């Protein structure tokens, strides 16, 4: 899960570059949380299979979730300023 989180967090930061705080640890945490969010989206909304192993599909789903989390974070912090 940590490996998928690291890869997904890095891909999400690559897709959505910006002045987000945090280094490698925060990137991993965003990726792991993104894996849960992406898995929930795929399973709940689209009826997709449960992801239980490292695969390209798992990384893409986790990256999707991490991008969603980064977008939400940026919306929240933009309004606070």
Automatic annotation (TrEMBL):
Keywords: Cell membrane, Membrane, Transmembrane, Transmembrane helix. This is GlsB/YeaQ/YmgE family stress response membrane protein. PANTHER family: UPF0410 PROTEIN YMGE (PTHR33884). It is a multi-pass membrane protein. The keyword Cell membrane applies. The chain crosses the membrane at residues 21-42, 54-76. Its main location: membrane. GO terms for cellular component: plasma membrane. It comes from the Bacteria. It is found in: Cell membrane. Belongs to the UPF0410 family. It comes from uncultured Rubrobacteraceae bacterium.
């Amino acid at each position: 899960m940590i490996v998928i989180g690291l890869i997904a967090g890095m891909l999400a930061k690559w897709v959505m570059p910006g002045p987000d705080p945090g280094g490698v640890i925060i990137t991993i945490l965003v990726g792991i949380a993104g894996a849960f969010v992406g898995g929930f989206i795929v399973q709940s909304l689209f009826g997709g299979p449960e992801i239980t192993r490292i695969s390209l599909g798992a990384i893409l789903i986790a990256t999707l979730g991490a991008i969603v989390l980064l977008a939400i974070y940026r919306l929240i912090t933009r309004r606070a300023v």
